[in-house]
Amino acid sequence: MKSDGFLSSCIKVESQRISRQATIPRQVCFELNPDIIDKIEEIKAEYGNLDLKPEQLTDLRYYSLINSPIINTQHIYSDRSSLIFSSNYLSNYSQVPTTVVRSTIDLDGQISQEIQQDLWQNPQLSLKVIQAHHWLTAEILRQLPLENKRQTSLIFWILWGINAIAFSWVILIFLPTFFWLKIIVTIVVLYLLKVSLRHLIKHKFRTWILSQLASGWLSNKTSKRQLGFELLSLLA
Amino acid sequence: MNYDLLENITAVEISTVIVEEIVDEMFIAWEVYQSIYYLSRSSLEQSSIDLSLRSHYLQLRRQLELAYCLLLVDSNSSLYSRTLARQIGQDLPVLVSQDFEWETLPTRLPKPLPGNRHATMSEVNQLLSDRSFTNILQQLHKKKIALDRRDRILHSSPIPNDITNSTYAQTSLQLDGKIVNRYCQAILERSDRHLLLQLHEQSTTAGEHQWRGMIQFLFSLIK
Question: Best exposed site among A32, A180, A218, B57 by fewest CB in 10 Å?
C-alpha cells in the first residue's frame, strides 16, 4: 500500500531566502495532526510506504546534499550543518502547531532526538507522535539514495564507439607509415581513449554535476535540481 | 570535493533529550566565534555563570585557540603560516593540556571586531570561511548551548530528579564494536523511568536507521 497525496502534503522543506534569487533549505518539517497520525498508523499496519512527489524528493535530496561533507558549500552562506527533521503537532484543541519532536542528524556521527516536555506529559499521544515522526523520517531517508539506472556503460560505449571510429579513421587514412604500425598505434590510442573516457565520465563529470547542483546553474530551481539528480543517477 | 566521508568518524552517538521548548537555533559563524572568543574568567564572573561550569566554558575557549593554531601549522591549510609554525609548535603542548597554563599564552586568534577604525575584518572573515575551522566552531557551539542550558537549570529553583533540557540518555555505537550507554542519574529515581528508557531505545533504533539512510544517500552520489 502506498500513501496518497494527503500524507505527502504534511511534509515541508522549510527554506530561507539568502538573496533575491536564491533560497536554501533549512529543515524538514512534518505538520502532524490526529488525522495524519491515524493515516500513518493505517499505512504502517499494512506495511505500506510513503509516496513522495518527485519534486518533494528532489528538494529533500538537495537539502541533504548541501549539508553533506561531499560539497564545500561555504560560498552559499551557511556552511555544512546538521540535517533537521521536526514534527509540528496541531491538536484538536489548539490553534497553533507546536514543535514537539526533532531529530538532528550531524554527519560527524552525532544524532540528537529532542522531545518537547508537554508532549511527554501525555505518554499515549507522545508514543504515537514520536513513532509517526520516526516513520516519516525513515521513509524519506529510505527513498533518498539515487536509483542506479545502469546507463553508464551504455553512455560510455556510445561515446567510445563514436570516438573510436573517428580516431581509427584518422590514423588509418592519414598516418604516413606501414599498415601494421598503423594497427598498433590505433590499438594504443583506443585503449588510452577508453581509460580517459571512463575517468572523465565516472569522476570529472560526476564532480562537475555535484558542484553545479550545490551552487551552480543546477542549484536554483527544483526542475534544474531534478535534472541534476537524474544525470547523477545515470552515472550511478 | 571531499570524498572521505567517514574519515574522522569513530562512533555514532545518539542522545535523547526532553526539552522545555524546541527552538530554531541558527548557526551564524561570526556570532558564535565572538561569543567563544570573549570567554574568560572575568567575563564568566560578570555573567554570573555557575562556578561549577566555568572551567567547561574556558575549555571551549582553549579548544578554539587550539583549532586555530593547528590550522596555522598545517601545511595543507589555507591558513598555514610558515613564520608562526615554529613558535606555535612550542606552544602546542601547553594548549593541548587541559590545565589552565594556556591562559598565559597570548592569543593568536583574530579579533571578531577590528581594534581600530583603520583595521578590517578580512582576517576574521578568512578564518570563518575555512571549512575545517567552521566545522569545529559548530561543534563548540553545540557544547556551548548545552552548557548554557545547564547554567539556566542551575540558576532556576531545583526540581527533584528534573531531567529537562539536558541529555538524559546517550548511546555510543563505536567502530570497534563497543556499545556504550550513558544515563543521567536522576532518571533512576523517576516513576516514568521505564518509559524514558523505552523512549531512548526507540530513539537509538531510529537514529541508527537515520544515520544509515544518510550514508547510503551520500554513497549513491559518489560511488
Answer: A180
Question: From the list A78, A100, A113, which residue is nearest B203 (CB)?
Answer: A113
Cα A194 from Cα A162, distance rounded (Å): 12
Does B126 score more than 50 pLDDT?
A: yes
Do residues B147 and B89 share a domain? yes
- Same domain for A175 and A127? no
Give B 31-50 residues with CB within 8 A of chain A.
none
* Same structural domain, B115 and B29: yes
Instruction: Identify whether residues A37 and A105 lie together within a single domain.
Output: yes
ipTM of the complex, rounded to two decimals? 0.80
Please indicate whether, in this complex, the C-beta atoms of B5 and A69 are within 8 angstroms of each other. Answer: yes
Q: How far apart are CA A178 and CA A161, in angstroms?
A: 25
| Segments forming the whole domain that contains residue B175 | 1-18+163-223
Q: Is the pLDDT of residue B152 over 60?
A: yes
Predicted structure pTM score: 0.76
Backbone angles phi and psi of A114, in degrees to 5 = -105, 135
The string of pLDDT tens digits covering residues B160-202 is 777 887 889 999 998 888 999 999 888 888 888 899 999 999 9
Helices (H), B73-174: 82-96, 122-128, 131-155
CA A111 to chain centroid, in Å, comes to: 20
Say how far apart CA A168 and CA A185 lie, in whole Å: 9
Give the sign of the dihedral formed by CA B47, CA B48, CA B49, CA B54. Answer: positive
* Same-domain pairing of B215 and B129: no
Domain shared by B45 and B149, yes or no: yes
Sheet with A98-105: strands ordered across: A11-17, A23-32, A83-89, A98-105, A110-116, B11-19, B167-174, B179-183
Contact between residue A117 and residue B168 where contact means Cβ atoms under 8 Å apart: no
How many domains would you assign to chain B?
Answer: 2
A62 and A73 Cβ atoms separated by less than 8 Å: no
Find the domain containing A49 and state its range.
5-143
Choose, out of A24, A114, A218, the residue to mutate when testing the contact with B (most B CBs < 10 Å). A114
Q: How many helices (H) and strands (E) does chain A have?
A: 9, 5
Note which residues in 75-104 of chain A have CB less than 8 A from chain B: 78-81, 83, 85-86, 99-103
| 3-class state of residue B97 by DSSP | coil
